[in-house]
Design a protein that fits this description.
- The chain is α+β, with helices and mostly antiparallel strands and 247 residues long.
- Among the domains are: 50 residues; 48 residues, no CATH class.
- Helix content is 30%, strand content 33%.
- It has five helices and ten strands.
- The chain has a ten-stranded antiparallel sheet with strand order 4-3-2-1-5-6-7-8-9-10.
- A hairpin with a 4-residue loop joins strand 8 and strand 9.
- Helix 4 packs across helix 5.
- The longest helix is centred in the N-terminal third of the chain and has 27 residues.
- It starts with a helix and ends with a helix.
Length: 247
């Protein structure tokens, strides 16, 4: 038992040192990145069941009579992804994103039990080719139309394009029955400086980016960008063009 504790302490010390120097390593010598990743993998393996990743509440399943499901992309099964939790990076983690409860569901190391990560300890995660970040509102953005939760980060430059993906429960009353089902919705946000703006149309975005409005209008027309048809692609394209024009 003493050897296991000693090993854990040694590896934790190595991780703390490596995490502090990670930025310098990346900037000065990218050849060191595989070695750093190897150390982190060894750390995750060494602590196994003692991992700080396994400290959330038990996750309760929904009533099977509810139509549809609460999960991102409607995938009602675990998919492997990466997550930065409590400042530590974990990869190949079996996860699902519950869009109704706005929590990340993880499969316990026994491959059977499910639990929810403590959201405020999640920095970011990559799941099903999407990058999610956790935003906690504070005095700077509490009144800017954005709430605490997980957001799909579509673009991250001087501007930031975010999507809030949500699900809700609805009821339909029949002759003798009440049917409950999930519905999906999404809301778009733009971060400029320290402020978040709700984006419901192309014109709203152009109003926020008024200093480059004329150039952006020309770009939108030339590239036949249609917000109503493909809002996510449109927002990313406009944000990226704004960054180009602002250099």
């Amino acid at each position: 038992m003493g050897k296991k504790i000693l090993l854990t302490l040694i590896v934790i010390s190595c991780i703390i040192i490596c995490k502090r120097s990670q930025a310098q390593i990346i900037a000065s010598d990218t050849s060191q990145q595989p070695a750093l990743g190897h150390i982190i993998d060894n750390y995750n393996t060494a602590i196994n069941e003692q991992s700080r990743l396994y400290n959330g509440p038990e996750y309760d399943l929904y009533n099977p009579n509810i139509k549809g499901n609460a999960y991102f992309t409607d995938l009602n099964e675990f998919a492997r992804g990466t997550v930065t939790y409590d400042g530590i990076f974990y990869k190949n983690v079996p996860m699902m994103y519950d869009m109704y409860k706005d929590v990340i569901v993880v499969l316990l190391y026994n491959k059977f039990s499910r639990y929810s990560l403590l959201s405020e300890r999640v920095e970011s995660l990559d799941l099903l080719n999407h990058h999610f970040i956790y935003i906690k509102t504070d005095s700077l953005n509490a009144n800017a139309g954005i709430s605490t939760g997980f957001y799909d980060q579509l673009y991250n430059g001087s501007l930031e394009v975010l999507v809030k993906r949500s699900k809700a429960l609805q009821n339909t009353t029949g002759t003798n029955t009440i049917e409950t089902y999930f519905t999906s919705s999404k809301s778009f946000y733009l971060k400029k400086g320290n402020s978040y703006y709700s984006i419901g149309s192309q014109s709203t975005m152009l109003k926020i980016l008024n200093d480059k409005k004329k150039e952006l209008q020309q770009y939108i027309k030339a590239n036949k960008i249609k917000f109503k048809k493909t809002p996510e692609e449109a927002l990313v394209a406009i944000a990226a063009r704004y960054d180009e024009l602002s250099r």
